[in-house]
Amino acid sequence: MMMYHSWDSQNAWLRQILSRNFLYMNRATAGASGLADDDWVWVESHHGRIRCQLKTMEGCEPHTVWTWNAVGRQRGTSGLAEDASEATAGFLLNHLISELLPASGARRFTNSDPVTGQAAWFDLRVRVRKCAPDETGIQPTFSAAKRRPDDDGSRPDVLHWTRGE
Amino acid sequence: MTPDGSGKPLCGVITVKLGLVIDLDTCVGCHACAVACKEWNDGSPVSGPLSDYQPFGAEPSGVWFNRVRHYEVGDYPASKTINFPMSCMHCADADCVTVCPTGASYKREDGIVLVDQDKCMGCNLCAWACPYGARELDRSSGTMKKCTLCVDRINDERLPEEERQPACVLACPTHARFFGDFDDPDSQVSRLTAERGGFGLLPELGFAPVNRYLPPREPKPLTGLEDARSLLERGLASLASPLIRR
Ligand code: SF4
Ligand code: SF4
Ligand code: SF4
Prior knowledge:
The structure holds 2 protein chains of 2 kinds. Chain A is mainly beta. Chain A has a domain at 6-98 and 110-130: Barwin-like endoglucanases. Chain A has helices at residues 14-17, 27-32, 85-88, and strands at 23-26, 40-44, 49-57, 65-66, 127-130, 158-159. Chain B has one domain (18-244): Alpha-Beta Plaits (2-Layer Sandwich), CATH 3.30.70.20. In chain B, 22% of the residues lie in helices and 18% in strands. In chain B, strands 10-1-11 form a 3-stranded mixed beta sheet. Chain B has a two-stranded antiparallel sheet with strand order 2-3. A two-stranded antiparallel sheet of chain B has the order 4-5. In chain B, strand 8 (136-138) and strand 9 (143-145) form a beta hairpin. Mean pLDDT of chain B is 90; it is low at 1-10. Chain A binds chain B through residues 1-2, 4-5, 12-17, 19, 26-28, 57-60, 62, 79-81, 83-85, 88, 109, 114-115, 155-163, and chain B through 28-31, 34-35, 38, 42-45, 48-62, 64, 68, 72, 74-76, 79-81, 83, 140-141, 240, 243-244, 246. Strand 6 (158-159) of chain A pairs antiparallel with strand 2 (52-53) of chain B. One iron/sulfur cluster is lined by residues 22, 27-33, 68, 83, 85, 171-172, 174, 176-177 of chain B.
């Protein structure tokens, strides 16, 4: 339940609570598929594929996988160091999900909930495959974001706050 | 029996025993209490900064007085997530205080256990003595820090009376946290503990922790579930079909 904090901001405190995500899968489903905690897996949809790391749990419907989305970051964004775990271990499901529903006739509809208009991210079929032993690290990755001219890339090792009088 | 017949010792009487009640039934594990705690206490005159290490780097960490853990109990489909916030229990018999070689750790008459930052030399003995992991060594200041029970809020008369409570209690969106005097049998914390079977953690260790946890309630068996479900499905279908036909 902690992730809603961080939709926009992996700030100095909130990212101590969660600075990377995993793909969560029902433990029995994973066991039957030869998958275990911390395995690297490919997740494939009709639209694309991602590579990420797995965690198993009981409180998950056996044919559903899920993650805290919006933790993954492009390297160098959100004011984070380039080796921040959001960029090296965090991932997004966006690459798997099409913006549009399949074509039917001339008009294309957005892939969104018909009542609320929210992006419809709840009905995508995916295949989860264990990676080969040499396949580790998140995919896809992108080159680091361009820095602002006044940013030399260094980040403080320690922060302490003092209250103003 | 003591001379006044109350059973309580007459000298060194502690008439107030302050602490927290945490409701494990309603806690949703959002960490709002932990963040509000850090926000109130960071840089306070009592504890000084609550330092953060590598705040924007590969392995961010820092000093927190309140941490929320998450556990799963039982196997699918009868599994349940238990969210478990933990901070100092303000123990009645606190070894963290007795082991302190400088006298920096002390227990007040109202039960609150504090660390005097000017006397602490950061030797870590109290952290080893505490079985609840409640003590946090600030590597930057070299001193020990911990939950103060928001000692700089609860008696501050500049605050409106309803805000003279710990920051974590005020922040909790599900009202799973309560603050009060366990020595008063009529206080909200005493009544909740009695009504809901509140328990302290690891009583067998003999620290006499003051904070109490309310256990998750047993789920009530649902009756007429199938009827309700088919009614709901029919209702939803008739409502949704004109909307989604497009
Ligand atoms: S919880 Fe730990 S730090 Fe707090 S009073 Fe008890 S022994 Fe001391
Ligand atoms: S009582 Fe105050 S110091 Fe203790 S956990 Fe709550 S907010 Fe933090
Ligand atoms: S703020 Fe309340 S609901 Fe959220 S983690 Fe803390 S005790 Fe639980």
